[in-house]
UniProtKB/TrEMBL annotation:
<dbReference type="GO" id="GO:0003676">
    <property type="term" value="F:nucleic acid binding"/>
</dbReference>
<dbReference type="Pfam" id="PF03602">
    <property type="entry name" value="Cons_hypoth95"/>
</dbReference>
<keyword id="KW-0808">Transferase</keyword>
<feature type="region of interest" description="Disordered">
    <location>
        <begin position="186"/>
        <end position="208"/>
    </location>
</feature>
<dbReference type="InterPro" id="IPR002052">
    <property type="entry name" value="DNA_methylase_N6_adenine_CS"/>
</dbReference>
<dbReference type="InterPro" id="IPR004398">
    <property type="entry name" value="RNA_MeTrfase_RsmD"/>
</dbReference>
<feature type="compositionally biased region" description="Acidic residues">
    <location>
        <begin position="189"/>
        <end position="199"/>
    </location>
</feature>
<dbReference type="GO" id="GO:0052913">
    <property type="term" value="F:16S rRNA (guanine(966)-N(2))-methyltransferase activity"/>
</dbReference>
<protein>
    <submittedName>
        <fullName>16S rRNA (Guanine(966)-N(2))-methyltransferase RsmD</fullName>
        <ecNumber>2.1.1.171</ecNumber>
    </submittedName>
</protein>
<keyword id="KW-0489">Methyltransferase</keyword>
<dbReference type="InterPro" id="IPR029063">
    <property type="entry name" value="SAM-dependent_MTases_sf"/>
</dbReference>
């Protein structure tokens, strides 16, 4: 079991798949959302959670006031768990029926991205560590065509993996290490970032 860390559904307990997925630890999830909240990137955002697993990342965003959340998970059992966890968060928020704006898309990430058309403000990507770098690069290229100008893209990878190959028009903001996990933050380039493309990327570690 895991839990929602903050927001209106704080402490709501979520089930996680027994096999086949690698849930983001509460420590890493808390760090990710601390950064996102400091940028005001969650409240009112249209959120896309790719390789959703249990849906914990997207549902954390829903608890913190996201306008809408899409959980993309092709594994049948995990997608069913996403729906069940969305119901848990719905009850914690006191929302009846379909009032919680969370949609579960039981498709592969590539298939979903090939047909998606609505702009999104926050993309959470936590793929299996064995997802190839080329596959991730293709996902990011498709994502870059969906994001709004002020969007934030979050990628969670192993510290042994190289930096994601960011598509043209996407600028890495910073990375953080948490044990064996590295989290990358990126955003669409603006005129300012293009003008300052020689500025160093901020990196750091919270390794203890």
């Amino acid at each position: 079991m895991t839990r929602i860390i903050a927001g209106r559904a704080r402490s709501a307990r979520l089930a996680v798949p027994r096999t086949g997925t690698r849930p983001t630890s509460e420590r890493v999830r808390e760090a990710i959302f601390s950064s996102l909240d400091s940028w005001d990137a969650v409240a009112g955002a249209r959120v896309l959670d790719l390789y959703a697993g249990s849906g914990a990342l997207g549902l954390e965003a829903a608890s913190r006031g996201a306008a809408s959340v899409v959980l993309v998970e092709r594994n049948t059992k995990a997608a069913a768990l996403c729906r069940a966890n969305a119901d848990v968060v719905r009850r914690a928020l006191g929302v009846k029926g379909e009032g919680l704006p969370v949609t579960v898309a039981p498709h592969s990430v590539r298939s979903y991205l090939s047909t998606a058309g609505d702009a999104v403000d926050l993309v959470l990507i936590d793929p299996p560590y064995d997802l190839g770098d080329d596959d991730l690069a293709q996902d990011l290229d498709a994502v870059s065509r969906l994001v709004s100008p002020d969007a934030v893209i979050v990628v969670e990878r192993s510290t042994r993996s190289p930096e994601p190959r960011w598509p043209s028009g996407v600028e890495p903001l910073r990375s953080r290490d948490y044990g064996e996990t590295r989290v990358w933050f990126a955003s669409p380039e603006t005129e300012e970032t293009v003008a300052e493309d020689d500025a160093p990327t901020i990196t750091g570690s919270t390794e203890t």
